[in-house]
C-alpha cells in the first residue's frame, strides 16, 4: 500500500471540506462525542451489570479509555512513519503522519463500539439467533447475502451502518465521518457470505448489503487491497491494527480491575497477575515494589499496577507493529498484535485464562447475558413479524406494535430487508434500561404511564 494514498479527508454524504481551526480528523472526534449513538453507550453493558453500588465500566467509559490509548499508539506510529519513510512521503503526508494519525486512531477507537447492542455480546447473539431460529418462515423473504447478514449479525458491521446510514428524515451520510476514520474500524472488511474462521480479516464481516456501496467507496478512497470481488473481500487497512490493539489492551486489563472492585477477584490474585506482566517488561522491578509498598489502599495498588500494565502493553504493541510494518502494509500479517505478544509472554496468557474462568463465567455476568438475550429476542419477535406483513395483511395487534417504532426506523416503501434492518436499528440502538423497560411493558409485566 502507498502511504500517500491510504488516508482521505473525504466524508460520507459527499459534503465539501470546510476551512476550520480544527483538522478534518479532529472534527471526526468531536462529531462522535456529540452524537446520540455515542451517548447511548453510557447505558450499555461492557461486562458487568449496570447500574450497581460500585461503579464499573460501561461501553462509553470503555470507548473513552480505548480512544486515549489509541491516540498514543497513533501519534507514535505516525512519528515512526515520518522518520522512517520520509523519502516516500509527500508534504501533505508528512503533515498527516506527524500531526493527524493520532487523531484518526482516537476517533476510530471512540466509535468502534457504537454498533454493539445492549447487554454485551449476548445482544449480538440474540439478534443473530432470532433469525436462525425462525429460518423456515423468514429466510424465503431475503436473498442469500441478505440472509447471511441477519443470521450472522455483527456489531462491527452495524457500526458502519450506524455511522453512515441515512435514517428516515435525517441528513445524507449519517455522521459524515472521514473515510480514514471509517476504514480504521473495519476489522473484517468482507461480506457476510465470505466469513471464514481462522482468517483474521474474515473471522466476521464488516458491512451489511445495504451499506455495500458505501463501503466500496471507503475501500476505494483508502486504497484497500482487494482479495476478491465476488464476494467482496479486502485486506485490513494498516490503521485497523492500532484500533484493535487499543481495544484489546483496555478490555483485557480493565475488566480485571472492575472484577477486583466488585470483589469477584481477590486483591492477591489481581496483583500477582498484573505484577508478573509488569515484571516481565521492566528493568526496575524494585522501584515498582517500593511504590506498591507505599500504597496501603487495595484499589489504589491495583490501579497503579493497571497503569503499568497498560503502559507495557502499549510499548509492546508499538514494537510489534514496527517489526511487522511491511507485512501490515502488504496485507500479509495474519495475527493481532496482542495475540503475537500473548504467544511470547505467558503473563498475558495467564490474565486472559483467569478472566475467562473467574470473570466472564461469573454468575452475575452469565445472568445479565441470559436476561439480555431474552429481552432482545422478544423485542425482535414483537416487531419483525408485523413489519414484514403487507399493509393489507396487518391485524390490529400488528398495527399497534408498529406504532411503537419511531419514524426514522420505518421503511414502508423499502424491501423486506430494509424494513427488517429498520427494526434492528431500533432494537440494537437501545440502552440496557430502555430495552428492559420496553420489554416489561409489551409483555404486560409493567402497566402504567411513564415518560
From TrEMBL:
On the tree of life, the source organism's domain of life is: Bacteria
Q: Where is the HD domain?
A: 59-252
Family matches, as Gene3D superfamilies: eoxyguanosinetriphosphate triphosphohydrolase domain-like, Hypothetical protein af1432, putative deoxyguanosinetriphosphate triphosphohydrolase like domain
Q: Which gene is the coding source of this polypeptide chain?
A: dgt
Instruction: Report the EC code(s) recorded for this entry.
Output: 3.1.5.1
Q: Which GO terms describe its molecular function?
A: dGTPase activity
Question: From which residue to which does any coiled coil extend?
Answer: none
Q: Which UniProt keywords apply?
A: Hydrolase
Q: What is this protein called?
A: Deoxyguanosinetriphosphate triphosphohydrolase
> What species was this sequence derived from?
Chryseobacterium aquaeductus
Q: Which GO BP terms apply?
A: dGTP catabolic process
